Amino acid sequence: MHLCARSDSVESVVTELFKPLLKPLASLRLTVALMAASIVLIFASTWAQIDRGILTVVGQFFRDYVVWIDLQIFFPRSWDVPGRFPWPGGYSLGAALVANLLAAHTVRFKLSWKRSGIFMIHAALLLFLLGEWIYGEFALETQMPIYEGQTVQWAQDIREAELAVVDRNPPDGRPDHDRVVVVTAKGLDGAAKNGRFIRHDALPFDIKVENYFENSQIYQILDQGNNSSPQATRVFENRVFSVRKAREVAGVDGGGVNLPAAIVTLKQDGEDLGTYPVSIHFQSDVHRYDPQTVVVSGRPYDIFLRFRRY
Hints:
The chain is of the alpha+beta class and 310 residues long. It is built from six helices and 13 strands.
């Protein structure tokens, strides 16, 4: 009995010591303000799905600490409404809600059987927030397309793309293995925006990304002589194709995924190796495993854009 009384007194002292610090954090007004901010975030993200895919919106609005919300998303797209404002993202609001809930239990709530329902509801809320954070940080979803008569040893994530440079017969590898170097979509997009070459010791050439398209279309060029500027082209069955930007798949489209593309210029020691269009369109059922070949110092390398593989 003496030990229990002493334990209770220590707990009481600790609670009273930290109570002034935790009381503002446990405020019910703060709870209401955080819930209101969450409603605004959900409202804005819903409107943003008119223009962008749901996965893009989730990443920008909920899996970041601060999001810049464009005023344009709240108005008809025919209107030109400039301006944007910052707002706390899902990670910030989630962390603040967890801190608010734990502080409230420390300051106001006492553990008892009569309050078990409240504790269960709050525990479920904490589990929901924790589960979403774990999923956002660590979850991996892939597909494994297997065509008739084919064997595969990889799965792909259709939400991300990568540029693959493949040496089918590496001199330092086994004859039945390829040597593959990949550049992520983020790397391609960044290189397109800053105009810098992508260089790496593992790459047989330098890569300059002329354009990167989050979503794209391929189109056939019927008469190249009528084009005022040179275009990067591919030839399939005597037909000439190129790529152009397309509107991103939106959350209101009812399915579908973005099919990225890029136009890349390859150089080795200052020598221009050509400008090529690369697109996931070219890896379709009809043209799958038909990459473009670039010869460097007499050695062939295949290049193609594909969904990220694991």
